[in-house]
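=== Discrete structure encoding ===
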Amino acid sequence: MYEDWKENILPLVYLAPQSLNPSSFSVKEYFAARSLIASRSFQIDEYHGFGMVPLADLFNHKTGAEDVHFTSVSPNQEYEDDVDSENGDNNELSKISSHDKRDSTCENSYIHSDSESDYSSVTGEDPMMLQMIMVREVKSGDEVFNTYGSLGNAALLHRYGFTEANNPFDIVNIDLELVLKWGCSLFSSRYCRARLSLWRRINISGSVSENSEYFEVSSDGEPELELLTLLYIMLLPDDTCHKLDISICTADKVSANIGMILAEKHDITWSTSSEISKDLLLTEKVCRALLALADIRESCYGSKSIDEDVEALERCCMTERKLYHSLMLRISERRILEKFRTYATAGAQSQTFQDANGTSTKKRLKKH
């Protein structure tokens, strides 16, 4: 934000020192304005884009249980779409435009009009006006909630300064650096770089944010396929890894490289239209790697146990907002890590059972 201010705002003050009061355009003032926009603006619909809307920014967020939608639907818009949104998926405001079921002529004019006057002439509406639509019944005196989207506690705390208990969209991020740290504890750094390069050559990568690559673990403790694939490649025997390296140049599909290896190992039928099953990647070694990653990720919270965090939260008052919401985030993430360990342990036990019984059942990989 400071770099943005220095690059875009400061030159304007220097260019017009007489007409602009420098104190009104200081870095402190810029931070305040940026903070308001970052925390209160939202995507209204496809036509209006992002905006700061009077009244709309007064509503607090509730995950998956909002009472209102703000949109520019026509007065004759049927109400069924919003009723459906209550009973089905509660999508974020950025998807509200999907409820806007105009006839095809009007919709095309709405999306492709060159100016606000064009839009107004087609719909007979003021394009600067929005409607607040109730999507569920609210009793008199109750707080009315909006939604900021399907966000986990980390995103809510980062963007808006609060968290929610039992948030179904919570996730835990495991940075690629932590995976490489685990790898280098078992193998040389040269070995890890080579296996990472091989993983990238089959067009797989983690999520990227602010120059940091990471993998998500969902609220139920299940890791992304990309992480499992990386661990699987890291732990492949050298001869199998060499075979995979050669097959990359000839495979018709990215997943075919790993798929062919899995097909041979598990004696399963493989087709190029198949997608990789996570269960097949959960070898005993991969499961042990997941448990090690859980421990490494857990160490980021320091020496205090999750029980100590829970006790601290119970003692904490809501007036201590920063401490309260920080503890909420720590606890929610550590509970996901507990489920992550359960996922890995169950996978290891399943592999041990299969190995003990010597079973090799013919089965097809999961179809698209």
Remarks:
- The longest helix spans residues 321-357.
- The first strand starts at residue 42 and ends at 45.
